[in-house]
Structures are given as structure tokens and as C-alpha cells.
């Protein structure tokens, strides 16, 4: 039996970030890949053969044997068998430890700068979740934290910031917010719109409140529709963090976790909110909390001007 080698998500991330040539084979069923995947990966329809224990599952494969191959499955188990077979066929093969469940927490960053303000977009690559570190002077505010607090702490230190405020744009339904943990780990003020109904303590802020991060103004704007407490953050009248209210290619859904009556109510709110946002200057840059596609490592910042979004989304 050939020795089965494994690779962790951080090493694979480093390989991709440095443009190391590698073949990534996704052996999951196509239905699972459609939901989320690594953009640089190749899908092979071998799942059933591998589940059946067929040792000739890769006999058809003709890839460059000088390049490493990383196999991935849902949880990192079936890929061990795949890696064993590929190694026996002469490939330098590795199994991704933890599979896509582990890749769910792989991340990278992109940066936008506005004079003395730096906005670091922290991206969960697989699910397209976007969080932000806003830095001004030596102070920082984190919005929509979705990764372990240590990641935001380390990034803040690298950029010379101390995290003094944290917040969420809304109560997230599709992932567990790490904002509460981050507030505890840093001692930062945990801010949330005063209308939010949650079972933990926070510092309530009202619609229209203008926060100061150092000398940088951040305006709180109540933008209900996706959720009742949805909030956007306007930074120096130039950048708007919109949460799940407005994306760069679509608008937020009012029907999640809502009955028919609640959906109509939230849809009406969303209609008014979108009119409020689209009345801003077309040059305002929109930074959402999600993107609809898996993110490629090293991809540019996920954002668009409000003017461009108004042109591309017909309902606006």
C-alpha cells in the first residue's frame, strides 16, 4: 500500500496564494460541489466508484505527474482512499485534511484605503462570507466577524491597530457570528442597533448615530428589509457596509425565517431601504457581507460603486 500523504488547509492556502502549480481534484458528488467549491479545483465524477472501493477509479486520469495533486471530499475520509490510488499510479498526491468542512474556515484578505482609513476585507473563501476590519489611526472596528477571534486580533496587530469596537450588520441566520466572542477576547465595545432582539448584552446605538473611530466618522443607518434590525455603516460618506441588504449583484431576501405576512412587511421595508441607499452618491463604494460565489485566493476586493450596481441590478 502506498503511503498516504495529507495537507492542511493553511498549507493549501499558502500554495494557492503563492501561485504554486497544483492540481486540486474535487471527488464529491456534483450536487455538493454546486453548493460550494474551491474555484481552482477540477471536478471528477468518481464518487460512486470510490465509495464502492473500485481501485481502477482513476485509471482514465492523465495529469502532469510532476505537479502535486490534492484530493478533497466532504470530510477528508474518502479522499484518503483517492490519494492512495493516485499515489499507486505515480502521482504526488495529498488528501486535504478535514475536506471541505475544514476549507469552510479557510480565509484571505483584501484591502481598500481611503486616505488615513484602511478597510480590510476578511473573506471566508468557501462560503463567501465577508467581514471587515476598519482601521483609523491606531484604532479598529470589526464588523460581521465570522472567524475565530484570534484571526482578527492577529490582523489588527499586524496593521498596528487595537480593536476598540465590534458590531454586526444584522442577526446572521446562515452562520454563527463570532462578534460576541471577539468582544470578550478584546474587551471591545459590542455595538448593535437598539432594535435588535438577542439574548446577550450589547451597547445599543440608534439610527443616525455617528461613531468616531479616532477622527473617522462612521454613521449608523437603519436599513431594514432582510431583517428588522439590519444596519449599514457609512464610512466618511465614501464607503457603505451593507450587510445582506444590498450585494454587488443582487438585493437581500426578505423571506428568510418569515411567514407570508412577515415577508410582505419586510419586502415593503426593503423597498424603502433600497430607495434610501440609492439616493446616496453614485461614487459610494458598496461592501456587502456576502458574495454569491466561492472566492479565489488573491481575488481583488469584493465591492462595487453604487452607480455601477444601479446599472447592473434592473430592479434598482
Features of the shown structure:
single chain; 316 residues; alpha/beta; Oxidized Rhodanese, domain 1; Metallo-beta-lactamase, Chain A; 2 domains; 9 helices
Structure commentary:
- It is built from 9 helices and 18 strands.
- The strands form 3 sheets. The protein has a 7-stranded mixed β-sheet, with helices on one face.
- Helix 6 (149-158) packs across helix 7 (179-186).
- Strand 2 (23-26), helix 2 and strand 3 (42-43) form a beta-alpha-beta unit.
- The chain has 2 domains: 5-102, Rhodanese-like domain (Oxidized Rhodanese, domain 1, 3-Layer(aba) Sandwich), CATH 3.40.250; 106-312, Metallo-beta-lactamase, Chain A.
- It has helices spanning 9-17, 30-35, 47-51, 78-88, 99-103, 149-158, 179-186, 260-278, 306-312; strands spanning 5-7, 23-26, 42-43, 68-72, 92-96, 107-114, 117-124, 129-136, 139-143, 162-167, 189-193, 203-205, 210-213, 216-222, 231-235, 239-243, 285-288, 304-305.
Helix content: 25-40%
**Mean pLDDT score, rounded?**
94
Radius of gyration: 22 Å
Largest sheet data: 7 strands, mixed
In the CATH scheme, the class of the largest domain would be: Alpha Beta
Tell me the CATH superfamily of the largest domain: Ribonuclease Z/Hydroxyacylglutathione hydrolase-like
Strand order across the largest sheet: 6-7-8-9-10-11-12
The CATH architecture of the largest domain comes to 4-Layer Sandwich
Indicate how many domains the architecture comprises.
2
Terminus-to-terminus distance: 60 Å
- The tally of strands reads 18
Strand content: 25-35%
- Poorly predicted regions are none
Amino acid at each position: 500500500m502506498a503511503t498516504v500523504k495529507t495537507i492542511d488547509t493553511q498549507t493549501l492556502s499558502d500554495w494557492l496564494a503563492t501561485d504554486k502549480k497544483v492540481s486540486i481534484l474535487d471527488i464529491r458528488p456534483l450536487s455538493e460541489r454546486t453548493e460550494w467549491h474551491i474555484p481552482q479545483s477540477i471536478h471528477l465524477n468518481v464518487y460512486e466508484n470510490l465509495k464502492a472501493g473500485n481501485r481502477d477509479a482513476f485509471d482514465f486520469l492523465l495529469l502532469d505527474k510532476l505537479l502535486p495533486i490534492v484530493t478533497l471530499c466532504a470530510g477528508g475520509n474518502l479522499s484518503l482512499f483517492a490519494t492512495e490510488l493516485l499515489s499507486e499510479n505515480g502521482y504526488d498526491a495529498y488528501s486535504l485534511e478535514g475536506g471541505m468542512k475544514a476549507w469552510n474556515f479557510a480565509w484571505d484578505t483584501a484591502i481598500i484605503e481611503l486616505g488615513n482609513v484602511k478597510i480590510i476585507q476578511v473573506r471566508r473563501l468557501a462560503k463567501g462570507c465577508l467581514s471587515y476590519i476598519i482601521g483609523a489611526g491606531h484604532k479598529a472596528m470589526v464588523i460581521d466577524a465570522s472567524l475565530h477571534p484570534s484571526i482578527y486580533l492577529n490582523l489588527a496587530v499586524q496593521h498596528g491597530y487595537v480593536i476598540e469596537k465590534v458590531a454586526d450588520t444584522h442577526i446572521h441566520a446562515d452562520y454563527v457570528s463570532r462578534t460576541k466572542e471577539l468582544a470578550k477576547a478584546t474587551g471591545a465595545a459590542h455595538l448593535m442597533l437598539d432594535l435588535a432582539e438577542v439574548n446577550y448584552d450589547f451597547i445599543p446605538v440608534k439610527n443616525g448615530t455617528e461613531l468616531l473611530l479616532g477622527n473617522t466618522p462612521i454613521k449608523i443607518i437603519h436599513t431594514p428589509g432582510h431583517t428588522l434590525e439590519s444596519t449599514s455603516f457609512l464610512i466618511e460618506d465614501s464607503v457603505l457596509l451593507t450587510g445582506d441588504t444590498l450585494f454587488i449583484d443582487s438585493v437581500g431576501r426578505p423571506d428568510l425565517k418569515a411567514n407570508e405576512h412577515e415577508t410582505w412587511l419586510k419586502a415593503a421595508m426593503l423597498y424603502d431601504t433600497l430607495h434610501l441607499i440609492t439616493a446616496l452618491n453614485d461614487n459610494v463604494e458598496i461592501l456587502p457581507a456576502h458574495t454569491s460565489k466561492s472566492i479565489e485566493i488573491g481575488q481583488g476586493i469584493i465591492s462595487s460603486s453604487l452607480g455601477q450596481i444601479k446599472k447592473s441590478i434592473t430592479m434598482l
